[in-house]
Each structure stands twice: as C-alpha cells, then as structure tokens.
Design goal:
The protein contains 7 helices and 8 strands. The radius of gyration is 22 Å and the shape is elongated. It is 33% helix and 36% strand. A hairpin with a 2-residue loop joins strand 4 and strand 5. By secondary structure, the protein is an alpha+beta fold. Strands 1, 2, 3, 4, 5, 6, 7 and 8 form an 8-stranded mixed beta sheet that branches.
C-alpha cells in the first residue's frame, strides 16, 4: 500500500510547463516564428530557433525555400520570447546542386563590421561557367572581400541582414566580379553574427 501511495504522488511534468510565443526581431517585423514549451522561462534564454525563410515570408519560391534563418532568444517578457538574428545558411543540398551544374567554385570567408558596429562572418560562394585560372580565382576572391566589407561598412545591421537573406547582397557582389571572368552566380552561403555573451 505504501508503494501505491508513492506512485500516486508522482507529478505530471507537462502540467508544470507553459507555452511561450517566439517573436522575430524588428527587422523581420516581429513576426511570430514559433512556440516553445518550458517549465521555467530562465531555460529559454539563449535557445536557438531555426526558421525557413519561406515560412517567414509566406512565399515558397526557390529563393526562399532553400534558406534557413537562425535566431537566439535574448529576452522573455510574460509568455513572449524575443529574439535576435544570429545568422542564416543555404540548405547544403541546394548548394551541392549549384556546384554540380557549373565547373569552378570559388569560396571566400570575410569578417565584416556594419555601419553601426555589428560584426559578422560572411561565407560567399562564386560559381563560374568554365574552369578559371588561379589568378582569376585570386582576383575574384579579392573583389568579393573588398566589396562585402565596403557594403557592410556603409549599411546598418538590420538592412545588411535583409540584403543578405533576400539576395540583394549577392546581386551587388555578382556585379562587382562578373567582369573578372566567366562568373555565372554569387551566393551568400552562410552568415554568422559575432556574438558576445555575459
């Protein structure tokens, strides 16, 4: 009988948990991007939420279907978790299909600082229609690096993020390198916010 009494007192952990609405930052119109369940709001802080760009915009075109956005919960008010943008990434399978169709792939990684002092790491990908020489690769990488740093320096963080995820930055970089060689496409493969904790 004593054992039965103990079992009866076991509490259902789900009953102690609450649902929290997760909001994107203002640069994405503070849209709700999901729901998180937790027994303690302190456990929500710094949690990372992944959302497809298509889900965010409601448009599932090729440009949005293969892009994931990453947000980190920074503040909880009541039953609402507020986030910051910490990066994006093109779906690896989509990147592989781009690479297979072309002949040369040029990778470039740059650390940039926006006009309002926010640091990011930008990983760009340049695809050519023909095999290109090492000197052309070097010139393309140099042009990509110089231009992405210059654009970031002239642009506030929220606008720079929008240019990244909606393809405007890729278009600007393409225009900067298309005269160097037979360049067919430029993509921003990944972006990462340089975060500070504490």
């Amino acid at each position: 009988m004593a054992e039965q009494g103990k079992k009866a007192k076991v509490m259902d952990k789900w009953k102690t948990k609450s649902w929290y609405s997760v909001l994107a930052p203002e640069m994405f119109e503070s849209k709700e991007i999901g729901q998180i369940v937790s027994s303690d709001e302190a456990n929500l802080k710094n949690r990372v939420v992944k959302v497809g760009l298509g889900e965010m915009t409601g448009s599932f075109s090729q440009a949005t279907a293969y892009t994931n956005l990453y947000f980190r919960v920074r503040e909880v008010k009541g039953k609402t978790a507020h986030t910051i943008f910490i990066g994006h990434e093109l779906v690896p399978g989509y990147v592989r299909t781009l690479v297979r169709r072309r002949r040369s792939v040029i990778h470039q990684i740059d650390d940039v600082v926006t006009k309002d002092g926010v640091g990011l790491r930008i990983k760009s990908l340049c695809i050519s229609g023909l095999k290109v020489s090492e000197s052309v690769r070097r010139d393309v990488r140099k042009a990509l690096s110089e231009n992405v740093k210059a654009i970031a320096k002239q642009t506030d963080f929220p606008l720079f993020v929008q240019e990244i995820v909606y393809g405007k930055l890729s278009a600007k970089l393409f225009n900067a390198v298309k005269q160097i060689g037979p360049i067919k496409r430029v993509e921003i493969r990944k972006s990462e916010l340089k975060e500070k904790f504490g």
